[in-house]
Amino acid sequence: MHTTSDLTWNDQLAPTLDDFARLAQRAFRALPEPFRSVSADVVIRIDDFADEQTLRMMGMEDPFELSGLYHGIDIGHREQMGLAAEPSRIFLYRRPILEEWIERGNVGLQELITHVLVHEIAHHLGLDDDEIHHIEDEA
Predict the structure, then answer these.
(1) What are the CA-CA distances from residue 77 to residues 32, 33, 123, 132, 136 (Å)?
(2) How close are the terminal C-alpha atoms of the chain, in Å?
(3) Residue 108: closest CA among 38, 4, 36, 8
(4) Angle at 76 (CA atoms; ends 74, 78), nearest 5 degrees
(5) Which one of 15, 23, 132, 139 is most buried, counting C-beta atoms within 10 A?
């Protein structure tokens, strides 16, 4: 089992779902306010891949194409829609993130998980992919 203080995995087995959950929680705790507060009720879930129904909904055939997904009503639309039937969720998909981490080779796993998590939190805040990419390009 890996500790959160040594999460490089050089010459080790791939990080587990639990390892990913710890890294995601670390990334969430490191978010600045007010992002952490407005996202505190979002459930973060780690799965190996998106399920078939999710892939179909996203118009994807290859499960490695999807590394994260926000599922819920963004905070800008909540008051208009009333109480949500279920909590908003962010899915982080371990295998696609690992594949990207290996392919890129120049980014740490914690950094990549943080990037995907922040991208999905941006959806929670009401931003679409074009707006998120524009902000990333400007940064």
Answers:
(1) 23, 21, 12, 18, 24
(2) 36
(3) 8
(4) 70
(5) 23
